[in-house]
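Run log, item B.
One chain of 321 residues. Sequence copied directly from the ordering sheet:
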Amino acid sequence: MELLDQQWTEKYRPGKLDDIIGQEAIVGRLKAFVKEKSFPSMIFSGPAGVGKTTSAVAMAKELYGDVLNQAFLELNASDQRGIDVIRGKVKEFAKTLPLSGGVVKIIFLDEADSLTSEAQHALRRTMEKYSATTRFILSANYASKIIEPIQSRCVVLRFKPLKEGEMRSYIERIVKGEGLDIDDKGIDALIYVSDGDLRKITNTLHGAAILNNVITDKSIYDIASKARPKEVVAMLRYALGGDFSKARDELNVLFLSYGMSGEDILVQCNKEALNLDVDEKLKLRLVSTIGDYNFRIVEGANEKIQLEAMIARLALMEKGK
């Protein structure tokens, strides 16, 4: 087993564009940019853990080689989201002359949708002023949160969610590399809790492997603090059957045994509600109700009270029918 302080996220992160999985169309365009040594500013948009940051770093490595540190600046905009960062670090790096053999420099802003409006407008002006020597790559889960003047100056590349087969092959690669023992149920659990996020897959698997080389679905759910699908389904079925007491007992298990937050429970409820074998109209009302209570919790209402209110509403809904 590797030393515990070794980060698997770095160990198994692709080093080259060819190694990135599930984003063939985007990788093809980035390789063409590298070959021509000419490219526009870009926005990488898509869900977490599908390769946005990795693609930017891999492209920079292939472009700059040994002078990477002089030609590539990476900042996490969620940590440094104010206008001072744009006027300071970003502007200072942008105005320096490139040392990369004629290739423009790259400033990579991860989680750029976290930038304040003022910071984005300052960034727009910096992009305009230093367009001859610097290109910007902005990574965002939601491209719509980037202001229109910046979007119009960039090519938007949309990263798609990873397929189950792609996640499974990634898991098998780590399992083989670390000498782990995991069965199909464990792999299915890992895919379920990750929601397509390879970073979450890596960290969850690492956490389970620290405890035991033999990894089961139970250890995956425990590490991820997620309930098994059947436990969430049981709570919903009791509620829809009008049995509030049993539904509340199942809810307490999710809170106490797994330590789940109210929002996490609702996310799993929403996922499992779509698979319930119930009348279609009832399913629509169920999804709508989950959305209502998710909004209440996000706005700051007490999680336990709101979730108990939700299962009470579901029980009354079925009785009313």
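Observations after the first pass:
- The chain is about 60% helix and 10% strand.
- Residues 23-158 form a domain with the Rossmann fold fold (CATH 3.40.50.300).
Flagged for discussion on Thursday.
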